[in-house]
Amino acid sequence: MGENGSVFLPEASSSFASEVDALFNFVLAVSTVFFIAVVGTMIYFVIRYRRRSHSFVPAPGKDSRLLELVSIVFPTILVLILFTWGFQVFITLSTAPPDSYEIRVRGKQWFWEFEYPNGVVTVNEMYVPLNKPVRLKMSAEDVLHSFFVPEFRVKHDVIPNRYTTVWFEATKAGEYRIYCTEYCGTQHSAMLGMVHAVPEAEFNTWLQNQDQDIPLLDLGERIFSQYACNACHAIDGTRKIGPQLNGLAGITRTLDDGSTVVADDSYIRESILDPNAKVVDGFAPGLMPAALGASLTPRQLDGLLEYIKSLE
Ligand code: CUA
C-alpha cells in the first residue's frame, strides 16, 4: 500500500495522508488478526469439542486466572494505543496551521461553490497551491452535504447555518475528484467537483486571471474594500488622514508645493502607484504605502481607477 494507491486506498496526495493510512492499516491489521484468531479458534472448537454421543457429559472447565488477566489487560492496552494514536491523527486533521490559505466552500443542490480571499468565485473547480496549507471554511445553503477528497483523506459534513472546516496541504500536483458523500437529493451523485493542485506561481496566475470575468467597476469596488482604502480615504466628503476621493474626477487640486494638477486618469493612476509623487496640500506625505498599488494587476488597477472616478 504505497504512495500511489492500491486496491485498498487511493493515491496519498496530502501532507497527512500517510499518517491517516498508517492508522487505517494498523486497525485493519489488528482486526484481521483478531478475526482469524476468533473465527479460527471457534471453528477448531466446534470440531474438536463436538458432541460425540448423546450420553456424553463434558467435565466442568477449570478457571484460569492467567487467561482472564490476559484477556482483560491485552485488549485494554490495544484499545488505549488505538485511542492515543487516533486522537493524535484527529488533532492533526482538525487543526489547520495558522498561516493557512482560506477558501470559502458552499455546498448547494447540486454543486460546489468556492470563494477566494480576493472575491473570485468558482463553481465545481477549486485551485489550490501545492505545498501550502489550505483551510476550507464550509457551509451549506440548503441541505446537508459532505465534502470528500479521497486522495487528500479529507472528508467533512457541510451543514446549513453552521461553519465546518477542514484543511489539507496538497503534496502532488494533479487533479482530484471532489465527492458529495451525504445524500442531498436527486442529483446527489452528480454533485462532483475537481481540485486542481498546482505550483504556487501557477496558482497565483490563475487567481489573478479570474478577475477577467467581472466588470471593471465591480472589480474596482472589490479592490477598494479589500485593500481597505476607505480606512484613510473618505468617499463621503468627510476628512480622514488621506484626501477624500469622492468628486475627484476632473477637479483641480492644489499640491503641497503650491502647484496645481487636474485630477485626470493619469494623475489618479500615478497617485495609486506612487503616492508621494504629488501630495495634496494639507496632507502628510509618506503615509500611503506604495506597495499597495504595486501588488495590483493591470486590470485591477484599471478597475480601481474606474471606481474612484465613479465616486460622486
Ligand atoms: Cu450534496 Cu450529496
In terms of topology, how is this protein built?
Blueprint: H1 17-48, H2 65-94, E1 101-108, E2 111-115, E3 121-123, E4 125-129, E5 133-140, E6 145-149, E7 154-158, E8 164-169, E9 174-180, E10 193-198, H3 200-209, H4 216-226, E11 252-254, E12 260-262, H5 265-273, H6 290-294, H7 298-310
Parallel strand pairs: 1-5, 4-10
Antiparallel strand pairs: 1-2, 2-3, 5-8, 6-7, 6-9, 9-10, 11-12
This protein binds dinuclear copper ion.
Question: What's a concise summary of this model?
Answer:
This protein has 312 residues and is α+β, with helices and mostly antiparallel strands. It has seven helices and twelve strands. The protein has three domains: 84 residues, Helix Hairpins, CATH 1.10.287; 109 residues, Cupredoxins -  blue copper proteins (Immunoglobulin-like, Sandwich), CATH 2.60.40; 95 residues, Cytochrome Bc1 Complex, Chain D, domain 2.
